[in-house]
Amino acid sequence: MLRPQLEEALKRAMKAREQCRVATIRLILAALKDRDIAERGKGNGELDDNQILALLQTMIRQRRESIEQYERGGRIDLAEREAEEIAVIQTFLPPAIEGDDLVSAVRGVVDDLNASTIKDMGRTMACLKQKYSGRMDFAKASGLVKELLASG
To answer: For a Cys-Cys bond, which of 70, 73, 115, 146 suits 120, CB 3.0-4.6 Å?
Structure first.
């Protein structure tokens, strides 16, 4: 479902002559093609929507790291470009789960798995990633899982 959405968005951006949007969507499609090729080498098919969402999250994280480095280096123009790319990438992601909703989702998975010790962290995080790929900041979720399992 995401793949055709990306291709259609590229066409619309090209017609509207939105250069930043066109360039960013082309970067997404190129990264997607690279990952598809890598998966085929492993004997798997094309990426599914959850894997595409994870790829988009990775692209956003990389750009945020670049923004920090550009700002430290005094290259505000490049930092602004990265921020524009983040805005474009985020249009393809479902609404993020944050705040109380994040806490509720983490608690729900911990309860569903009957996770009670820190040893359950790996399978809890795996379940969260499967259920909420592209919709959750897993660094924050990891901290919550640690808190819940340490106190449980």
So the answer is: 115
